[in-house]
Amino acid sequence: MHILILQHARVETAGSLGNFLKEDGHTSQIVHLDEGEQIPKDKNIDGLWVLGGPMDVWDEGQLPWLKDEKLFIRSQVCDKGVPFLGICLGHQLLAESLGGRVAKSLNPEVGFLDVSLTESGQTGVFFDGLPDIFKTLQWHGAEVVELPPGAKSLAWSENCHIQAMQWNTRAFSVQFHVEIEEDTVKKWANIPEYRASLDKEMGENGFEKMQEACFANIPSMKQKAERLYINWMQATAQT
């Protein structure tokens, strides 16, 4: 497969998911939208991954490329049926591109927190092999508050009711992060917006607390990431 990856911050990569892609012999092209790179609309792709970032889906005034990105997502997912995977901001962009609604979180989530599968999540392919409740890295201050038509929620948490989403048979997205690596927290903490939310939500020594939790959870997170990667590949190959 050839995967187009839309990235919104140099340090916020596909992480372990990208490593699995390379190990399996697939190819990818990364477009750094926040650095002014253009989406290659004339190329055929086998999959579209949209990653996280510090901006919000409604920041089109300051970041006009967001509008083009949403139109591209909609055209690829709806018109061409390209398999899709969205993470954090990518989850929110998918929802808004398809007619859902995203808003600021009443209770932002920062830390390693529990996520619970819905009935659809428990019985579907995407979360096959994962427990009904598991910990993930959360680092967001906005969330999907209304599903787009035809979508279903696959996971939820107490403070965010749409933690994962499926639209049709080939588009999946998650609000949380499983793709983390050993240096993820260190790199992300250098993004001003992320550092501010970290300090606000986790208090004094928030960075140290997050870093310690990251190191403790790396092995289990890599296992979850590999399982989701395999499941995505299987789910998107079925149609």
Q: Can you walk through the features of this model?
A:
This protein has 239 residues and is α/β, with parallel strands linked by helices. 36% of the residues lie in helices and 29% in strands. The protein has a nine-stranded mixed beta sheet. The longest helix has 32 residues. The chain is globular. It starts with a strand and ends with a helix. The mean pLDDT is 95.
Molecular shape:
globular
Q: Calculate Rg over CA atoms.
A: 16 Å
> Average pLDDT, to the nearest integer?
95
Low-confidence stretches: none
For the sheet with most strands, the description reads: 9 strands, mixed
What is the rounded distance between the termini? Answer: 15 Å
Record field, number of beta strands: 9
Strand content: 25-35%
Spatial strand sequence of the major β-sheet:
2-1-3-4-9-8-7-5-6
* H and E string: EHEEHEHEHEEEEHHH
Number of helical segments with 4 or more residues: 7
Helix/strand/pairing class, anyone? alpha/beta
Summary of the model, kept short:
This protein has 7 helices and 9 strands, in the order βαββαβαβαββββααα. It has 239 residues and is an alpha/beta fold.
List its salient traits:
nine-stranded mixed β-sheet; 239 residues; alpha/beta; single chain; 7 helices
Layout: helices, strands, pairs:
Blueprint (H helix, E strand, L loop, with lengths): L1 E6 L7 H9 L3 E6 L14 E4 L14 H15 L4 E4 L1 H9 L3 E17 L1 H5 L9 E14 L4 E7 L2 E8 L3 E4 L9 H5 L3 H11 L3 H32 L2
Parallel strand pairs: 1-2, 1-3, 3-4, 4-9
Antiparallel strand pairs: 5-6, 5-7, 7-8, 8-9
